[in-house]
Structures are given as structure tokens and as C-alpha cells.
């Protein structure tokens, strides 16, 4: 609870609500029960009045990559963040994750990656206790973060950007204990990977192709494939406006996109998924 | 500060290793100066930062907060005159700061605002 109050106080400072108003600051600080936290926040606010916002908790950005890469695409986003004066930007990597482990019905392989990413996020949360956190996740990275948000009830991520998402279509954002305030789901209407993931594997979905259609999520559609989210054009046009100006750039393709071909819809259906998995399992059994 | 305390802080703030070593050196020189002159130096936050030159102001504020919690440093909240920045009163906690304070330089009572409150630090001898 004190952490929430502390973040609220820092937000109020940024909105100039304490300028010329010591009483308001004292009143809000008195709501903090832990004396250590009270002193830390007092120091930050008084220090910020004297020296500026450099004293305040910085924004933290995390980039989580997809499978079958060692995150070369992450580097472009990290570079863009740092070029835009956001030095506390961190790629989180996990070992090369091959197609078998990605497909495997033994979720232990996925669990190991989830555990690694969670450990890194928790470490950053400890080091930047009151910071605003933004996560950029691609492909399998979206699956990982969706599991973490569902299972770790105390973890608060402020902003979440998904691209090439393979999160289940019926993932219920409203049931998350700490749903991010802003969720942008960048979908590629030429991205076949979410469809294949759902069609042939266990537990994935087509959210990166068809969107979530949830009031908690802004689905943004692009005329692109799975790996096109990491080119300079996409980063400059659709990600930079957020971290430079806090602006979400609309994509016109969202309103002009064409309907997916019939065979894509078939691949994405639950029936196809069940038939496929049974066939694959039967093949493995008889080999 | 003790070697162990310094090492703990360095492992917690690895990018500020140089800062912590400079802070430690400053503390050692302060302690010997205060013993000989029987007078202790008090540093405004900005001056302390100039002396130890941290990589990040945010990390530095975290570090001094930890040092105050552990009793290595003492933190003072000083209300300064908005006219000439002369200290009008020193306080240990923000709740002790009065709503208004008499400024002798202008012979007026001024309403204290957060902008008039400054952080000062000294090493606990």
C-alpha cells in the first residue's frame, strides 16, 4: 500500500500539485506508514524541487524478444530508447528457444523462460522501486509476459506494448490483479506466425494477427509480417511517439485492412488446432 | 563507514562505485577535520553532489537515503529565506516544519513552501 501512495505522491509532484503547497505535501507524506519510505520520498521530492526531475525515479523500459533469435531486433528498440534520453532501458534475453520446445506440450520448457524473465523483471523492480515501467514484447515474449502478469499479483507494469503476439485470444485482461494502464497490441495482417502457433501448438493464440477486441487493449493493425516490427520505420512511427511525447500514433491500416483469407481463418480455428495436435501426437506415438 | 558497509553499498549500486569511494574519502577527511577543529561540516545536497560527482542524481539520492537510515549520515531539512537563501530554521522531519516562519532579513513572516526547504547532510561522527 505504501508503494502505491509513494507513486501517487511522485505523480502529484510531476503535476506540480505541491508547488507552493507544503501542507498538501505533508498531508500526503503522513499517509505513509513506513518511516523509511516516508524519508525516501521526502528526500526525492525536496531534492527534485532543488535540483529538478533527474533526482526522481527514472522511467524504465524492458524489451523481451521472441523465439529462435538471440534478440537482434531488441537492440534496435534499445538504441532508439537510449537515443531518446531513456538510458534505463534493458533487453531481457533468454536462451535460444527452438521450435520443438516452443511447440512442446510439456510446458516445462516454457516455464524455464518465464522464470528467467520474471527474475530479471523483479530485480529491476527492486532497483527502481517507484519507477514507471514500460515493457515491449514480441512473439514468445508476449506469451511470457502474459503468464507473468496473470500469476504475479503484486507486479505492476504501467505500459505494455505487444507485437506479433501469440497470447490466447480469450486472455481476460480484466481479471489481471494489476492490469497495465496502457496496453497497445500491434498486429500484423500479414503475420502468419500467431495463426500457425495457434493451429499447431498448445496454449497460444492469434492475438497478434486478429487482435484481442478487448476494451482494455488498443489493437493497432499494420500491413506487415512477424519480423517487420523491428525496422526503423516502425519504431520511429509507432513506438517513438509514445516514449518521446506520450502520444499513441494511430495506424490507418486499422480502418482500411482487408479481411483475412478463408484458409487463414481455418488455420486459426479451434477445430483445426485439436485435429492437428491429435495428428501430431498420433504420429509421434506410432513412430 | 566500515569496509563491509561500503562493499554492501557498492554491490547494491555498482555503477556508483567511484561515487561511494569518494563519499567514503570525504567522510574520513571530515571526521579528522572535525576532531581537530571541533567543528563539523554540513553540506547542501548540490554541494555534496559536486564533491562526489555521481553518475546519476537518482542513485545518489538513494545512496544518501540509505546512509541516513544506517546512521552514517544525518539529514537536515533547512528552511531558507526566499530573498537571500539564509537559513531560517533546521528540522529533522518535514512534519516538524511550521506553516510560516519569521524571516529576519525582511522582518516578515513567510509562508513556508517546499521550494524554500533544502536538504543538508553531515557525517555522523
Largest interface: A-B, 27 and 27 residues
Strand content of chain A: 5-15%
Uncertain runs of chain B are none
Class by SSE composition of chain A: alpha/beta
| Low-confidence parts of chain A | none
Distance between the termini of chain A: 56 Å
Structural class of chain B: alpha+beta
Q: Can you walk me through this structure?
A:
- The complex is a heterodimer of chains A (287) and B (125).
- Chain A is built from 13 helices and 6 strands.
- Chain A has 287 residues and is an alpha/beta fold.
- Chain B contains 4 helices and 6 strands.
- Chain B has a 4-stranded antiparallel beta sheet with strand order 1-6-2-3. In chain B, strands 4-5 form a two-stranded antiparallel ribbon.
- Chain B is elongated and about 50 Å long.
- At the A-B interface, helix 2 and helix 3 of A face helix 3, helix 4 and strand 6 of B.
Please provide a brief summary of the model:
With 287 residues, chain A is α/β, with parallel strands linked by helices.
Question: Which labels suit this protein?
Answer:
heterodimer, A: 287 residues, alpha/beta, B: 125 residues, alpha+beta, four-stranded antiparallel sheet, two-stranded antiparallel sheet, 4 helices
Amino acid at each position: 500500500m505504501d508503494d502505491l501512495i509513494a507513486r501517487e505522491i511522485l505523480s502529484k509532484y510531476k503535476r506540480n500539485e505541491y508547488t507552493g503547497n507544503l501542507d498538501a505535501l505533508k498531508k500526503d507524506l503522513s499517509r505513509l506508514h513506513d518511516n523509511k519510505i516516508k524519508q525516501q520520498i521526502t528526500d526525492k521530492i525536496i531534492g527534485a524541487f532543488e535540483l529538478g526531475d533527474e533526482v526522481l525515479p527514472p522511467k524504465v523500459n524492458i524489451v523481451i524478444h521472441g523465439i529462435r533469435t538471440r534478440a537482434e531486433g531488441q537492440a534496435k528498440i534499445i538504441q532508439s530508447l537510449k537515443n531518446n534520453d531513456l538510458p534505463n532501458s534493458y533487453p531481457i534475453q533468454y536462451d535460444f528457444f527452438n521450435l520443438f520446445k516452443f511447440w512442446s506440450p510439456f510446458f516445462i520448457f516454457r516455464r524455464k523462460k518465464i522464470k528467467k524473465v520474471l527474475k530479471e523483471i523483479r530485480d529491476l523492480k527492486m532497483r527502481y522501486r517507484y519507477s514507471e515501467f514500460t515493457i515491449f514484447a514480441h512473439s514468445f515474449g508476449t506469451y511470457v509476459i502474459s503468464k507473468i502478469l496473470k500469476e504475479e499479483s503484486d507486479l505492476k507494469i504501467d505500459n505494455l506494448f505487444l507485437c506479433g503476439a501469440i497470447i490466447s485470444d480469450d486472455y481476460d485482461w480484466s481479471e489481471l490483479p494489476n492490469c497495465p494502464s496502457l496496453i497497445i497490441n500491434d498486429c500484423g495482417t500479414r503475420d502468419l506466425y500467431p495463426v500457425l502457433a495457434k493451429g499447431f501448438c498448445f496454449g497460444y493464440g492469434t492475438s497478434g494477427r486478429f487482435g484481442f477486441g478487448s476494451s482494455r487493449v488498443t489493437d493497432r493493425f499494420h500491413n506487415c509480417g512477424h519480423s517487420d516490427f523491428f525496422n526503423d520505420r516502425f519504431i520511429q512511427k509507432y513506438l517513438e511517439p509514445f516514449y518521446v511525447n506520450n502520444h499513441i500514433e494511430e495506424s490507418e491500416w486499422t480502418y482500411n485492412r482487408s479481411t483475412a483469407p478463408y484458409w487463414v481463418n481455418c488455420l486459426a480455428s479451434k477445430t483445426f488446432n485439436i485435429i492437428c495436435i491429435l495428428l501430431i501426437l498420433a504420429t509421434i506415438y506410432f513412430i | 563507514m566500515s569496509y563491509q558497509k561500503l562493499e554492501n553499498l557498492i554491490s547494491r549500486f555498482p555503477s556508483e562505485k567511484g561515487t561511494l569511494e569518494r563519499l567514503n574519502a570525504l567522510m574520513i577527511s571530515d571526521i579528522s577535520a572535525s576532531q581537530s577543529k571541533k567543528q563539523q561540516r554540513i553540506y547542501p545536497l548540490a554541494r555534496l553532489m559536486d564533491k562526489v560527482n555521481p553518475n546519476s542524481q537518482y542513485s545518489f539520492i538513494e545512496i544518501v537515503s540509505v546512509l541516513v537510515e544506517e546512521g552514517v549520515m544525518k539529514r537536515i531539512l533547512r528552511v531558507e529565506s526566499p530573498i537571500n537563501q539564509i537559513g531560517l530554521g533546521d528540522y529533522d522531519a518535514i512534519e516538524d516544519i511550521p506553516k510560516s516562519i519569521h524571516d529576519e532579513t525582511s522582518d516578515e513572516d513567510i509562508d513556508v513552501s517546499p521550494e524554500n526547504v533544502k536538504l543538508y547532510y553531515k557525517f555522523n561522527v
